[in-house]
Amino acid sequence: MSAGRRLARGALRALALLALAGCGVAPYQPLRVELAAPVGAPGLERAAEALRVRFPSLAPEPGALRMASGWERCTDAGWPAKRRLFAFVEPPGTIALVVEISYLRIDLWGEPEWTTPRGDPRAEREAAELVRAALAGAARPAG
Questions:
Q1: Is residue 68 scored above 60 in pLDDT?
Q2: Residue 10 lies in a domain
Q3: What is the pTM for the complete model shown?
Q4: Cβ count near 106 (within 10 Å)
Q5: Residue 25 has pLDDT above 60, yes or no
């Protein structure tokens, strides 16, 4: 086998390994707030009332145990940004929270654009504390 073929095969192997490594990345997981009792529509509405302090557009989906907000202006990120929240009930007594953040990116020669949304763990922890306070009698200690 020639040196050129060996080099080409080695490059193909390296690309295959990189592709496989990329497939092994775990998806973003929601922050779960475990509760002592099952959460129904009234509990979800109490949680929504508490979360509207940070996400005013938060609205439960009719007939479903989940809710979502629109993009909300974010003033505490140190750079122009926007956040949105998704919350849903997981049986038997867990509310899962996902907060996404997107930053305004300004190219030197291009138009301003929003970055791809990514998880915001700090805002999720803050949202979890709001939920725990709203449902204090139903919250289970972590861990």
A1: yes
A2: no
A3: 0.73
A4: 11
A5: no
Residue 83, amino acid: R
| Per-residue b or e along 40-55, where b marks 16 or more CB atoms closer than 10 Å to that residue's CB | eeebbeebbebbeebb
Q: Mind listing the pLDDT tens digit for each residue in 102-122? A: 999 988 888 899 999 999 999
- The CATH code of the domain that includes 93 is 3.30.530
pLDDT score, position 143 = 42
> Smallest Cα–Cα separation from 67: which of 52, 83, 46, 48?
48
Cα 34 from Cα 141, distance rounded (Å) = 8
Flag whether 12 is in a domain: no
Amino acid at 94: T
Assess contact for 85 and 101: CB atoms under 8 A.
no
Summarised one tens digit per residue, pLDDT across range 91-104 is 778 999 999 999 99
Domain that holds residue 118: 29-138
Would residue 88 count as lying in a domain?
yes
CA angle 141, 123, 78 (to 5 degrees): 150
